Amino acid sequence: MSVQVENLENNMAKLTVTVDADQVEKALNAAYNRQKNRISIPGFRKGKVPRNMIEKMYGAEVFYEDAADILVRQEYPNAYDESELDIVSQPDIEVVQIEKGKEFIFTATVALKPEVTLGKYNGITVTKIDCSVSDEEVENEIKNQLANNARTVTVDRAAQNGDTVKIDFAGSVDGVAFEGGTSENYSLELGSHSFIDTFEDQLVGKKAGDEVDVNVTFPEDYQAEDLAGKPALFKVKVHEVTAKELPELDDEYVQDISEFDTVDAYKEDVKKNIADRKEASARRTKEEEAIAKIVAKSKMDIPDAMIDTQINSMINEYANSMRQSGLSFEQYLQFTGMTMEKFREQVRPDALERIQSSLVLEQIAKDENIEVADEDVDARIAEIAEQYGMPAENLQKNIPDAERKEMKKEIAMQKALEFVMDNCKERAKAKKKADKEEAAE
Question: 128: which of 23, 94, 171, 357 lies 20 to 30 Å off by Cα?
Fold first, then answer.
């Protein structure tokens, strides 16, 4: 295999990869073995047709697509390593040549990590944040905790917002049922806005045993084009209405749910926890402000392919989070009336912000000669092992070098952020004055 690199505009590059003909022959044979059980020719049993007979009847091209897929998957990682480029996107693959007895040639167009010219990062001014805790905040927190410890009870009354109804529903458009529009014993919290349009509103006031016709209209930009903008009818049967029954705040309750004996002691602990959260939130807000100011004063040319790759990563994060709550990403899009294109456009600014933040922190770590020792990585692995309740030694053995390298980069970025924050200046100031001072920095 050989690799030629052509640098393109906007931090893009094209790798031209050439694979020896003998590897092509192996890939064609592998493609034949993949397909032979699906090919029938009179006089031969399935799976027993010789490759040369298939190629004679259908042409050698019958195996080219599978062979190309095999070769790209096999050779692109090698080309990636050989190029020694800092690639930050998935490759855009194009097959240039595939023919029996000849070399296989394909190109991979990729985004490269852009160079960063840092603006000011030492002595950044951030806004001071008040972290004091009011009595009202304490009371609201306690109310929320009471709600979390509430009992769920079946009620014999009309459903209200905040109640949960167990329902069967069957949806149709113009009298025809549609995919994903039917479910049984579905628990729906009214007021959660989980379903489209006014679906939940039309169940408020209904009781167990009621059968309801719910009329809604799908959004114009709904992901299923055959449903977009159309009115739909849902036949709904209410099986049960449940509500939350709050416990009483007294010493007995406090002793049951905490380590404290009295309501007063419990309230003091609640106040301390709120203060800790506000401090952590203030820290994050100041970090975001500092990084945003550094990004605004820095220069970097970020290729679109890098942003697209980050968006794909974020979609995978969302999908994994959805799966943990029992919902597929496709169902999430359907219930929210969001298209994949609209979702990608919605998260694009966040994706760009993530990339910019990472790039400036990496550059700060480099410019400040921030080093990460193996002990730092070992400590991070120990933290992860503790979270999952497993021995750190076991995790150490199973983490590949590439992942350790990624951990090292993340730790360096964290240390760079700590450097920035340790050297920040806090200032409480009016917005107009702040804007003038910031522009002058």
Answer: 357
